[in-house]
Structure formats: structure tokens, C-alpha cells
Amino acid sequence: MRFLFDSNTWQEIFGSIGKNRTRTIITVIGVLWGIFIYIVLSGAAKGLDNGFEKQFENVAMNSMFAWAQSTSMPYKGFKTGRQLQLKLKDASILKNRIPEIEFIAPRNVKGVFGGSPAQTIRGGKSGSYAVYGDYPISTKIATKKIYDGGRFINDEDIDLARKICVIGERTQKELFESDENPIGSYVRIDNVFFQVVGVHKFTPGGGFESDSDIYIPFSTFKKLYNTGENVGWFAIAAYDDADVIKVEENVKAVLKNIHNVNPKDERAIGSFNLGEIFNRIVGFAKGLTFMSLIVGVATILAGVIGIGNILLISVKERTKELGVRRALGATPREVRSLIILESVFLTMIAGVMGIILGAGVLSIINKMTAELDFPYANPTVPIPYVLGALAIMVVLGTLIGLIPAQRAVSIKPIDALREE
Amino acid sequence: MIEIKNLHKSYKMGSNSLHVLKGINFSVGDGELVAIMGSSGSGKSTLLNILGMLDVLDEGSYTLDGVPIKNLNETKAAQYRNKFLGFVFQSFNLINYKSAMENVALPLYYQKVGRKERQEKALKYLEQVGLREWADHLPSELSGGQKQRVAIARAMAAEPKVLLADEPTGALDSKTSYEVMDLIQKINDAGNTILIVTHEPDIADMCKRIVHLKDGVIVEDKKVTQVRASQYV
């Protein structure tokens, strides 16, 4: 180990690699390029991964939605084409029968799938917005960011069927002055006055929700639109360790059972599984990361082989010098260490420079894409990846250095010193 | 110091075997200055290589300072070379990207001597060969004679038992040759054992003993009255 920290060792390494500077630089560039590609690719893949993740951050990944459609098969005396209607009591049956369900939120909406958006008036201003009937639990499935001071619907609102609402950012902009605090004020939704209790921040996450949606308690919605026990759809979140695709199948089976639908009827119950979509995207990002790893490591390998090649030539040129060293008492081990250390040193220098350069380029790309609506955020290369790359380089540098080192040792000092 | 008995060495050249050394018996005492002479092909360089542990003998025995030299692997040979021997070559063989001082310090590095001590010793030996002021110069900035003096300083730095010089003046003009020989004589005067391979009679005359090799055998081994090189300098 003393060998590594001896200034003379380093002086010898600098001396020998400094002898042919151009060649050293070109050699270093080979590895530098490899690690640069590796860092940039895996950083970009991670950035894309982060970007996708950000788009889904307000939605529980293992969530799904189920709604009723019309039957396509006759069953138990019912004819084909019967329009199904989900009911509020289905929720508790589903939760009881399927233990994997963590949260289940019945939801209703007016103005998205059918019905006209609610005419919403405040003073002289008005607009048409979709109105959702919701339970507090729906925020467990799709997070709603509420602006400072406001709140979402709570259990008491449900129990008392309070006439309160949570409005969207755009609704706020369109119905209120910019310096006005909407919390506590009243808006008229389809001719009924509602008190605004919160403003939700819209986060794009796909789906049909928008920045102008109005949320009111489910019970209030029921009274306002006379929907009775009807439910538009169920938003369901499974436990983290549950397989949401399986849950989706179970949910559909149970609903078919409740509503007397042929178990083989594929069209009666519609469903949408966010987990599957998400998994597909995550899988894509993972594949990209994996590919960038392979490409990066392969490029590093090519660079390291270049270093080995150069050292082989250098050993040949230094035959005499190595012979002198051995005549002066350098053991084969010491000669070997010298060459290997040169190899590792070159590799490491190139590696560190490549990492710095790669990090620089990643940060520039990040700055450039920050303004764009592009799923790309915070491109980082995990420290274990960087350390892993450095470790690979040390190992490869050592292995490739072994070849010229062995060549150097295999030359007998007497042959090395023989006069031309 | 050196004891050689019935030394044989042959080289295989294809199917033929070239018998280079044919039974050499030879011993060198402490503090001797021996010239090994002979025409080319007489085996003098082979003898020196075997003495220097750069080559192995086929038959016979070699004892250096009471240590039998046999069955050496490369590592052991390197350690013995470092401990026992100093080399001076015809073409100096300095490492061209190292300064004079670094060249001199190199054997000490392989002796695992600390950096500071290495530098001090290197400077001391450069001083002895009169090149203290040239310590920071690269070999390319030195003349032939200066290079050989640095090489001698390097050989001496490890404080070897025996100094082996292979045609040390072969690449030098006669004036510089005498300067180098003067230095070698002074080192010998200080009690060091030195073997010189040369084919120049005037250089051989500056030694205390001349061994003549011809066709692999010693044909003559005589003590001579030393000619001091200083009178030519």
C-alpha cells in the first residue's frame, strides 16, 4: 500500500505518461467519452423516469376506476343491452369482498360524460363548469392540492350535506378578482348558493379532470341533482403490495355479480387501470435506463481497451528503461504494479473528467427543458451508479493493464539491456 | 568477495549449442579493481551478465559475499542485484525523463528508502562525482562523460558490494574516458570492489588486475601496476 502513496511512484507514472502527451490525451479521451456517454445516457433516462413519475405524482399508482355500461349478453332472464347503474351500497360490498382494496371512493359528475356543465354565477360573472360529487376519501386516491387557507370536503360536509364547494384555479380566475380571497364567499351553482371552502391546484395527470372543476360533497350532489343512490364510478386504490390488475378483475367480477351480469360479459363494466399504464411507462423508462447502462459500459470498455493498447506500445518503447529498472533492483512485481497503476490512473483521470463533463451537460439539458412541457425532471445519476462506473473502470483498467504489465515482466532484463 | 568455480554457459542457437564459457575458475577479493579483457565473442559480457545475475549459469557455482547464487527466481535476483550489485553500462542507460538526482535515487527507491533520505543520498553521490550542480538536469542536458558519471553515482548510491561496469568508456572519447576512469579509481581507493569489462588496453592498465578471456576460458590472469588516470586528466 505504501507504494500507492509514495510520491516517487506518482512521479514515475507522471513521468512516463507525460512522455507522449498527445498520445496520452487521445487515449484519455477514449475513456472520457465512454464515461461521458454513460453519465449522460443514464442521467437522461433517470430524468425521463422522474418526469413520468412527476406526471403521476398526484395519483395513487395502484389505483383504478370502474363504471357501469350496458350489458352485451343476456343473463338470468335479463335481455341484452340493459343499462347498468352502480349504487352507493356497491362500495361496501366491494370493500368487504376484496380485501386488497385500501380506499374506495364513489364519485359522480355532471358536465363531463353527460349532462350540461353547471351554470355557475357570482355577481356579474358566470361560467360553466363540471361539478363532481365527492367523498373526502377520494383525495387518498388522487391528491388534491388545496391552496393556503382552504380545505377539501370533510366527513361533516357529507353528513350534513353542506352546500360548500372546492373550486378550481381557473374558476377562481374567472369568477373572482385577482386580489380577492375566494374562501368564505358564495357562488351560485345551478341556482343554489354554495360557500367556497377551498381552491384546488390543478396538476396535469392525464384523465378528464381539469383546472376548472368544482367539487361538492357527494350527499349534496345527490340532493342537488336528484341522483339518489346512483354512483357515476368508483375510484379504487389497492394496497401498495397488491396487484392492481388482479384487483381490477375482482372488482369487475363482484360488480357483475351484484348487478346480475353474465360473468363472461366483457362490456357491462368498464374499467381503467392506472397501475398498468404507469407500469408500462415505468417499464419503458427502466428499459431505457438499462439500455443506457449497457451502452455506457460498452463504451467505457472500448475506451479502456484503447488504454491497454497504448500501454502495450508504450511498454515496447520502454523496454530498455524497464530493463534498467530491473537491473537496479526492481522486482517483477514492482514493474507490474507500475504499469497497472499507470493504466488505472489514466482510466480514473479520464473517468472523473467524463463524470464532471457529463454532469455539466445534464445540468444544461435540465435548464433547457425546465420551461418545456416535457416529462423530464431532475436528471440525476445515482451515486451507486457513479461509484459502480468508477469501480468498473478500476477493475477494467487493472485487467487491461495486466496485459502490458505481463509483457513488461516477460522481457528479461538481459534482453532489454542488450545493445542494438 | 566473488568466487566462481568451473563455470559453464552455453546458448542454444536453433539446433546448435554455442558453448560460450567453458569452465571458468575465478575469484575476486575485497577492494580489487579487475579488468576483464577479451575480443568480441570471448564471453566477457556473458561472464559479466552471470556475475550481475542478469543471466544464469549452466554448470558450476557462484558465491557472492558468502551467499551462494543459485536457483534464483526473478524477484530474488532483483533483490540480490539491488543489495549486492551496481551496474554501469556502455550506453549509460539513464532514464531520460528523470533528472540526474532522480536517476541516482532510483535504486534507493527499490530499496524502500524514504523520499527525503533518498534525495539526500542522491545529492551526496552526485557531489562525489562532481555533479552536484547538475542534480536537476535531465540526461539530455548532460554530456556523455557527465551521463556516465551520473550512472556511476547511481550504481554507487545503493552501496553495493561489487560495481560491475560493462565497457564504461566505450561510448566516450579518450579524455572523458580518463575522467571516468579517474572516478572509478577513486571509488576503488575508498575500498569498493569493481569489475570492468573492456577491450581497450589503456583502460585495462588503469586497473589493478587484468583477466584475459579467449574462447570461453581464462588465458591470462595477472596483477598489474596501476596507471593512475589522474595524470591524463
Automatic annotation (TrEMBL), chain A:
Keyword Transmembrane: yes
InterPro entries documented for this protein: ABC3_permease_C, MacB_PCD, Macrolide_Exporter_MacB
Transmembrane segments: 25-45, 290-315, 335-365, 385-403
ABC3 transporter permease C-terminal domain residues: 294-413
GO cellular component, one term: plasma membrane
GO molecular function terms attached to this record: transmembrane transporter activity
Keyword DNA damage: no
Keywords carried by this UniProt record: Cell membrane, Membrane, Transmembrane, Transmembrane helix
All residue ranges annotated as the MacB-like periplasmic core domain in the record: 24-253
Compartments it resides in: Cell membrane
Domain of life: Bacteria
Membrane topology: Multi-pass membrane protein
PANTHER family for this protein: ABC TRANSPORTER PERMEASE YTRF, MEMBRANE COMPONENT OF TRANSPORTER-RELATED
Family statement drawn from the similarity comment of this UniProt entry: Belongs to the ABC-4 integral membrane protein family.
Protein name as it appears in the record: ABC transporter permease
Source organism phylogeny: Bacteria, Pseudomonadati, Bacteroidota, Flavobacteriia, Flavobacteriales
From TrEMBL, chain B:
Recorded coiled-coil stretches: none
Keywords in alphabetical order: ATP-binding, Nucleotide-binding, Translocase, Transport
SUPFAM superfamilies, per database record: P-loop containing nucleoside triphosphate hydrolases
Domain named ABC transporter: residues: 2-233
Gene3D superfamilies: P-loop containing nucleotide triphosphate hydrolases
Cellular component per GO, a single term: membrane protein complex
PROSITE patterns cross-referenced by the UniProt entry: ABC_TRANSPORTER_1 (PS00211), ABC_TRANSPORTER_2 (PS50893)
InterPro entries in UniProt: AAA+_ATPase, ABC_transporter-like_ATP-bd, ABC_transporter-like_CS, MacB-like_ATP-bd, P-loop_NTPase
GO molecular function: ATP binding; ATP hydrolysis activity; transmembrane transporter activity
Keyword Transmembrane: no
Family affiliation: Belongs to the ABC transporter superfamily. Macrolide exporter (TC 3.A.1.122) family.
Name this protein carries in UniProt: ABC transporter ATP-binding protein
Originating species: Arenibacter aquaticus
